[in-house]
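Morning!

As promised:
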Amino acid sequence: MQVAIVRKYGGPEVVELAKAEVPTPKPGELLVRVTAVAVTAGDNRLRSGVFPKGFGPIAKLGVGFRGPRKSVLGIAYAGVVERLGEGVTEFAEGDRVAGVNGKTLGMHAEYATVPVSRATKIPEGVAPAQAVGALFGGTTALFFLRDKARVQPGHRVLVNGAAGSVGSAAVQLAKLFGAHVTAVTSGQNEEFVKRLGADEVINYEYTPVESLCSGAAVSGAHTVSGADTDSLPGEQAPSKFDVVLDTVGNIDRKLGLALATNAAVVVLIAADLAGTLGARGRVVAGVAPERAADFAYLLRLVADGQFDPVVTSVGGLEQIEEAHRVAASGHKVGNVVVEPCSEMAATKAAGGSAL
Ligand SMILES: NC(=O)c1ccc[n+]([C@@H]2O[C@H](COP(=O)([O-])OP(=O)(O)OC[C@H]3O[C@@H](n4cnc5c(N)ncnc54)[C@H](OP(=O)(O)O)[C@@H]3O)[C@@H](O)[C@H]2O)c1
């Protein structure tokens, strides 16, 4: 089978295609024929070796000094169950599944093994790329908004970095939970985040996020709801939020608390080491868990038309360098995926000619 590997840290061009043996599922695992897989901000870090400030030495101790020890990257996947490991009863061969495979990685491949705890069935009507688009970003936004910030109807939620995979999911989930959403994005993505449901959009090219805490009149705030949907120069942007969610890394504890009401929760999703160590009380950082129940919840929302994952497919595994380029740009819109295998492929892993 074909895999994409990274032998040493570097730009998107270091990603190579190679041949590998199809893995054998261990007890409790599934062998999955991968039909869609994301190239995420995390994959970009593992390929480039560039980690948030302060995390570099610790991260490289864990993942490798010159390049990633696990050379096949990729965590957020959709696929078809090709073979069951011993003792697996929850799934059957041919099931369409999706999940996030955590530190195990290995999904930038035509076939990969995943533990059953990292898989859920894809509901009918949801395409593989849509499933991947919902899960990466969606699981993170769901955990921090629902479980940590406990967003309630009427809450004012600020999403900084609203166009990316976490941000685009956060805008939609916060709206679903009944919040009033202010989205911070570039001018290029203003219309896009409005379509996701944001009530107000702040263009950071005109209005730096730190200026919102002064309550000063700003020139880049656009009210989407209400009669006037055009640019409203001089409009008062909301200065106090019940939830501040930063996916960019340019809101620290001090700024987050200055933007927040006294009871608000500040979520620093892209915090550096100092920000992570300093997260306590109303300030939250860290890594979101990847839970099958959350995968199922998000995919059900997609199937029911309540969550529209933002995803761009660049083609097959041979296009993965291009997907890495998009992820490395810092201006990715939603998720970017590659589609290594077709859902229709009838080949069985045991002895099939496509392997
Ligand atoms: N803690 C966790 O569990 C967890 C989980 C997943 C991801 N993460 C981290 O969260 C971060 C975001 O991940 P992602 O997948 O959403 O990234 P992404 O898809 O690459 O999106 C980044 C977004 O940031 C926006 N952006 C860039 N500069 C900005 C600025 N100054 N102000 C506002 N928006 C700006 C870009 O939009 P424009 O083009 O509009 O600028 C882009 O859409 C990454 O650092 C990732 O490692 C953490």
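The domain at 2-121+310-338 is CATH 3.90.180.10 (Quinone Oxidoreductase; Chain A, domain 1).

Hope this helps with the figure draft.
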